[in-house]
Amino acid sequence: xxxxxxxxxxxxxxxxxxxxxxxxxxxxxxxxxxxxxxxxxxxxxxxxxxxxxxxxxxxxxxxxxxxxxxxxxxxxxxxxxxxxxxxxxxxxxxxxxxxxxxxxxxxxxxxxxxxxxxxxxxxxxxxxxxxx
Length: 132
Description:
This protein is mainly α. It has one domain (3-127). Helices cover 76% and strands 5% of the residues. The protein has six helices and two strands, in the order H-E-H-H-H-H-E-H. The chain has helices spanning 3-28, 39-59, 61-67, 69-74, 79-97, 107-127, and strands at 32-34, 102-104. It has a two-stranded antiparallel ribbon with strand order 1-2. Helix 2 (39-59) packs across helix 5. The longest helix is centred in the N-terminal third of the chain and has 26 residues, at 3-28. The chain starts with a helix and ends in a 5-residue tail after the last helix.
């Protein structure tokens, strides 16, 4: 299999893992909402939000981590919860701009949602195939 196809497959797997993790957060955290007329529309919205979330984590998160490096050291990595919450809030804002029916209500909701998404995404990435 060519490297390009492997990378595309890996991208699809990670996007589906993010969509699954976001779905669990919507299900478990009362302040994270996803609305839609049908199950199919909700699934499509979750996949689109997962793409936005992946882009935010790819483009913005490394910059934020670099700028907050002293806090990472000082807090022994606990600032990661705050950074993940901010990435989730940014994803919620971007989803609103793209008229996707996904919303995160408040900072503490985002902290809990970010924690759940991190754990679920990690678990899903363990069981889903990875071509790297």
